[in-house]
Predict the 3D structure of the following.
Amino acid sequence: MKFCVIIPDGMADYKLEKLSGRTPLEAARTPNMDNISSNGILGLVNTVPKKFKPGSDVACLSVLGYNPKDCYTGRAPLESASLGIELGENDWAVRCNLITANDGILVDFSAGHISDKEAKLIMSMLNEKFADKDVKFYAGKSYRNIMVYSGDVDIEADCTPPHDITGKPITKNLPKGKGSEILFDLMRDSFHLLENHDVNKIRVDLGENPANMIWLWGQGKRPSLTPFEELHGISGAVITGVDLLRGLATYIGWNIIEVPGATAYLDTDYDAKAQYAIEALETHDLVLIHIEAPDEAGHEGNTHEKIRAIENIDKKIIGPVLDALKKYDDFRILVLPDHYTPISKRTHTSDPVPFAIYGAGCENKSNLAFSESNAEQTGLRVKKGYQLMSQFIEGNIR
């Protein structure tokens, strides 16, 4: 049996007046998703448990079959594993965004999607000026980087994700609580350090947003996750452009398939992701393909780009992968966003997301296109999101 899971990150959305009362998913041309949905099982799944903030860290843990209530410690430690950072027992990993600040406002949570090369130069300077026995910075991809704190203070501060406060005052959204002073001091001092960095001078000259401040959040300690193969008896691999999913894969014992052109942005190479996934299915029982583009478009409030990303995923990834799966005697494919990233809110929400499963054992056809409202119409709802993976593998959806 072969299994494939496809996650168009943040694809789910609310109905928009500019789309004549449709969601971007409903407005997009998605014949392959509709085929999977209409000829298979369609329903809703709660990927974000109550009292958890909606984000890909919590949601993807659920999708992979792990109960966040039992194993979630924070976003940054998951991403750290992707970068090969070995966290000690008392280390705190902290997500370090490179952001654009102007007149006390958080203008851009991604610093204009700064390049890996530019980000690496900036992280190097942060290490040169701020690193000591307790603090060290690690370059990740683009604006997504990591700081590790090894001091005596527990970093239990309440921190706000920067993508939640675009266009809002920085002072009203600073870390609060135990350890917050450590984070605040570094964030404040980074502005004075980075404002005149050569990278930022060039970016400003080119009309691009400078990476003139760091934003620290998503902290946590090393989690403990049972290997996926030990739980389900099958091997797995992931294709993704983001460190979060790569880190999760590292912790659960999956292979990470390197794909040239996987940028974790709107310009990602969809065709390459599909081709590498098809090849990976030959040697793995389950392959997960994660595509960040719809989420990025949602955060930008860009309806056109979100629809385009959804259509690219359907045509260039889901279509070819579904055709390739049909050569195997038995297969099942699962398509679902990890969470909502509504255009109207430009951030994540905790709404239950639509999922569709097609393949062996899916005799009960929904006869409905893949959409948020159609999924609700079926009445099928998996309330504990972490249970969906075992149901998908066992062919026992309920």
